[in-house]
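Case 373 in the screening queue. Each case pairs one protein sequence with one candidate compound; here the compound is acetyl coenzyme *A. For every case the pipeline is the same: read the inputs, emit a complex structure as tokens, and attach any notable structural observations.

Predict complex for case 373.
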Amino acid sequence: MSEGFGTGFVAGLEDVVAAETRLSGVDGEAGELIIGGFPVEELAGRASFEETVYLLWHDVLPDAGQLAHFREELAGRRELSRATMDLLRDVVAEEVPVMDALRMAAGTVSPGTDEEEALDSVASLPTIVAAYSRMLEGEEPVDPDPELGHAGNYLYMLTGEVPGAEFRRALETYLNAVSDHGMNASSFVARVIVSTRSDFVSAVVGAIGALKGPLHGGAPGPALDVVFEIGDMSRAEAYLREKLGRGERLMGFGHRIYRVRDPRADVLAAAAERLYTTDGDREFYELALGVEQTALRLLEEHRPGRNLQTNVEFYTALLLHGLGLPTQLFTPTFAAGRVAGWTAHCFEQRALDRLIRPQSVYVGSKDRRWAAR
Ligand code: ACO
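Case 373 output:
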């Protein structure tokens, strides 16, 4: 078979099926997301994050004994090695952005079996993010507390305070809702890396790099900035029109697969709303809802019939802001949830053991000849 001279190129691999998976399924026309057999609405608000990870890895929910063991396994792997801490202390001086620090530090997870690397990656990503974000603020990292669950411990390491049940539940709902999402760009990257028989740590590092981009996981920070910059509903329409007029995309809207509202948006909206309790908070939440409605109306004018709808990132921003997280932690926190899916895809790809190696169409010239120089 020759490569490079055929046809059939689809930009962005749109509609190309790259894997069979039992992890999650997305119906973009119906607005449905199934994770490990459960509709996202059923799973996200009820499961602990540990249960979701176990479900994705084993295709079954753990019983009480298995869950206790799994929780202990993960909790015992939260602490960072000296090499990881040294790296974070080195890069903090240069104020390296959190996602870049996370990408570098995730690569310091010690080589081991696939299972060990998966456990270490899931367990340590929140510790890396929390430790580094505290270093950036000039504060000492807070040691993980093995008595706390995965989500509660993350908030504890960020603030030094044990979070209330409402906060723990909200974060857990978020982490579950974003744990996996079909053949998203970062999971595809992870699968490509493992398909070369490379290791899970490398796959997670590559996936973090893919997630960082504004068209994938980098959108929630800018989505919230827009609401802050608008500040008052009277300015929303003019502000958003100007952005669209400059050819910019509105962050938190549109999706490659969904042609209707992203089902995760509603799950996160319900969880986020409960966090905005004071008058001032409610005012901000109402402003965000108003901005969303205006954006949807203008996007319909901008691309009539394309049905650009609110995606997961808009309500991610509201939920994580409601939890008190600064915007620079939004994408790293997404990574802390999606690592469940990345590692699960790694296990699936390892079992398949088939090199992912697509083709390209050569469109360059063919008749150049070397002249003496
Ligand atoms: N704002 C303005 N215009 C948009 C937006 C948007 N949010 N989304 C799409 N469009 C426009 C595109 O520019 C395109 O116009 P063109 O044909 O003139 O280039 C048209 O609508 C159709 O675009 P699609 O083919 O639907 O977009 P695509 O599938 O390539 O991209 C994406 C999907 C990247 C999510 C896009 O909608 C976008 O950039 N949204 C903003 C960023 C964002 O919110 N990302 C998070 C996605 S969710 C996730 O990854 C977890």
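Case 373 observations:
- The beta strands are 24-27, 32-35, 38-39.
- The chain has a mean pLDDT of 95.
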